[in-house]
Design goal:
Shape: globular
Distance between the termini: 22 Å
Number of strands: 8
CATH architecture: Roll
CATH topology: Nuclear Transport Factor 2, Chain: A
Order of helices and strands: EHHEEHEEEEHE
Helix content: 10-25%
């Protein structure tokens, strides 16, 4: 899918103090905003697990997460690449140990002019080199679908 001519945006009103996991989460957002699939994949360790959302979903019917590089590429194609644009609003961030939790909303612009808001908690873990080892996103499909609307 090609991205919209309008670039994706990031509003970060959360704490910004440097932390390896927080820095990795910001790099991940940046790669999604720029539609940089290969750069996005390079942020993850070879055995990383991505759960977005956590548990069974239309992206992950078994609920075990997307494990390894091939599965992550597949997730990009099934989830990220479907959108024309993403607008990130990160309102809070808590960094502890090798992990960070961000709280915010992603507004996804879909083909045909539809938009949907995903209110979520984004949990990211990194290894000693700063590569992402786990990415878990808590959001509810029904709540997100309730926000589905046509763009103004």
């Amino acid at each position: 899918m090609s991205r919209s001519s309008e670039p994706s945006t990031l509003s970060w009103t959360a704490p910004e103090a440097a932390h390896p996991a927080r820095d990795a989460s910001r790099r991940m957002i940046d790669t999604v905003m720029r539609d940089a699939k290969d750069e996005w994949l390079d942020l993850f360790s070879a055995d990383a697990v991505l759960e977005d959302p956590v548990g069974r979903s239309h992206f992950d019917p078994e609920g075990g997460g997307h494990r390894g590089r091939d599965a992550l590429f597949g997730f990009w194609d099934r989830a990220i690449d479907l959108a024309e644009r993403f607008d990130f609003d990160i309102r809070d961030s808590f960094a502890c140990g090798s992990e960070c939790v961000n709280v915010g909303t992603i507004t996804t612009s879909l083909p045909g002019g539809a938009k949907m808001d995903v209110e979520a908690v984004f949990c990211i873990g990194v290894d000693d080199t700063g590569q992402i080892t786990s990415y878990r996103v808590f959001w509810e499909s029904d709540r997100a679908m309730a926000t589905l609307r046509q763009s103004e």
